[in-house]
């Protein structure tokens, strides 16, 4: 006779009336399991083993029998399939052992599966957003730079879970990002090697953030940074600086065109920024200041007694108007550079020395367009950074020492090529001014230009220098 069980117990009237279903348990033997039948009013039923906790067999209306481990964890019932019952092949002793192990390890297995699921939900996009929210101390400029790099290169992968990005994926991304873009004329541009490095470095930063932020109780959910493969296999593109400068023979035309364009009246009665841009270009040539920093010079930064610019240390209020390293810096000027400041301030109606048309500060495009006008005369491409590169080369030609050049250009350097003794050196402002003046003299020697003309006829009206301050204050790297 098939074994049937009283799923409802009529001898307990109150329970039966409430519809309470009691759990069926039997001693698992092959014969007992084989005789189990599903009640007529059910589609399937679970029968538990009396000997092994959590071990059950599911009996369907069709007669199929399947073993499960059943355990309630966190208010939810979980089932693990142990396979179908076969009277000839099923071995109950090994089955009970497997059930015991499964029951004991089910909680950890579920936790691991939950962690895996949560980890897979950490995508490149969500990790980047989390990192940007957490980095409260980075400047607005850095934030904009990160977001631009992410948008241009990494955003297409933002739905990828971090754990799904492999070493091979990173190598492929780097190769893809390095490829040149096709220009509007159908020709390929230059390889984007520096941009590719920058994008993959950002990807590595996202992983380092995610590894730390998603660790739980000391255990890492994301335990691998695939960007490490770039260093291991030495796959980074070589980041060589462009070897560019204005040829000494080109200096006369460069300076002459700067002055000519500034003095040329526009063909239409419209305002222009030619005077400020002309002064900015000559200022960069005579100081070596970074292209992006010339637009940060506020009128209040100009210290007339020493003819210098004092860039303040970075804080929350001035982060857009400080230098690359965020430190206070005294940019000591030669007379020509100082005259460009005085001239530009006369043509600027904003708080900045160099301003654009109806704009408080000079834009990159203003300088770029101005240099394109000079290119037509010289017949040579003039990127903005060529002025800084030329100043450094001219300083070398003027026999200025390496430390003094770094002081003039505010370039302390990094890496193994740095002279560690630079950390001990200082230079008084009068010494720095002397070096700046030597570079100024070298430019006039090579260009044959008139200092009086380049200085906009302002030399005779300059405020007298404070020699005491020049000899008492010093700068260092």
TrEMBL record:
Give the organism's phylogenetic lineage.
Bacteria, Pseudomonadati, Pseudomonadota, Gammaproteobacteria, Pseudomonadales
Instruction: Classify the source by domain of life.
Output: Bacteria
The UniProt similarity line reads: Belongs to the 'phage' integrase family.
Q: Which organism is it from?
A: Pseudomonas lactis
Q: Which protein are we looking at?
A: Site-specific recombinase, phage integrase family
Record keywords: Oxidoreductase included? no
Keywords assigned by UniProt? DNA integration, DNA recombination, DNA-binding
**Cited InterPro entries:** DNA_brk_join_enz, Integrase-like_cat_sf, Integrase_DNA-bd_sf, Integrase_recombinase_N, Phage_Integrase
| Protein's UniProt keywords contain Membrane | no
GO BP field: DNA integration; DNA recombination
**GO function terms (MF aspect):** DNA binding
